[in-house]
Amino acid sequence: MSDKVEQNLQEIMRSSTYRLAIEDPHFLKSPELRSVRVQLELLKPELVFSELGINSTVVAFGGTQIVDEAEATRKLANAKSALKRSPENTGLKRAVERSERILAKSKYYEAAREFAGLVSVARQTNGACDYVIVTGGGPGIMEAANRGAFEANSKSIGLNISLPAEQRPNPFITPELCFQFQYFAMRKLHFLMRAKALVVFPGGFGTLDELFDALTLRQTHRMQSIPIILFGRDYWSTVINFEFLADEGVIADEHLELVQYAETPEEAWQVICDYHGLN
């Protein structure tokens, strides 16, 4: 074989077109393969949940910025220290005000942690995987809920999302139940497919997005009947005026019944128990 032919053979062997399709990342990530990637993001968790016997879930949503009291106190101290060095800086004054509000909401971190532990102890017994806590897998309220299940020696799920600013999974998720998604739509689908309840702690845009996604599906009867529990009436009544929407005629009065409120972990769990007739 001549050198030229041998060189051509080597180029053939190195060519991306010669790779098996499943071993060609450029091909798999091409725009034309989007439908395949979407299907894979549907199937991968489905197969794992089936294999591990995950029968049902309880979804916990909430803000990434809501941290435990110790961390919130530290952040406030740092903000005050920065302001002390530059007392006329309006941005630093605003940072102190925001840090004070985050510290005030640290109680919700502890509530999410306690709630997840309560649910996990109650329903993950004798090897059963019912009412398994599922979160977005990130920090804040998500971490708190996964942590509560972890401290109860129970399984919990994290559905992380690939973002431009990398979001690492929190360390309390059950390792074999931690997934990373590219597509928000598939992630949302897995949040709700097995859900027996949705408990929404204070949060921002992402939390609101997930809340209204579930409310719309319940309003239009496109998903199973579940309680949607807003944790912290004062917060949520300020953020969303559901009664105004009904008064304006843009939602029906009965749609107000899609939302319930809770102030304690025990109250939230009792709403779920009453809804599904649990002992």
From the N-terminal CA to the C-terminal CA, the straight-line distance is: 79 Å
Low-confidence stretches: none
Q: What's the overall average pLDDT, rounded?
A: 95
Oligomer: single chain
Number of domains: 2
Written description of the protein model:
The protein has 279 residues and is α/β, with parallel strands linked by helices. The chain has twelve helices and seven strands. A seven-stranded parallel beta sheet has the order 4-3-2-1-5-6-7, with helices on both faces. Helix 9 links the parallel strand 5 (195-200) and strand 6 (228-231). The chain is globular and about 80 Å long. The mean pLDDT is 95.
Write the layout of secondary structure elements.
Elements: H1 3-14, H2 25-28, H3 34-52, E1 57-61, H4 69-85, H5 90-104, H6 106-123, E2 132-135, H7 141-151, E3 156-161, E4 178-181, H8 184-193, E5 195-200, H9 205-219, E6 228-231, H10 233-239, H11 242-247, E7 259-262, H12 265-276
Parallel strand pairs: 1-2, 1-5, 2-3, 3-4, 5-6, 6-7
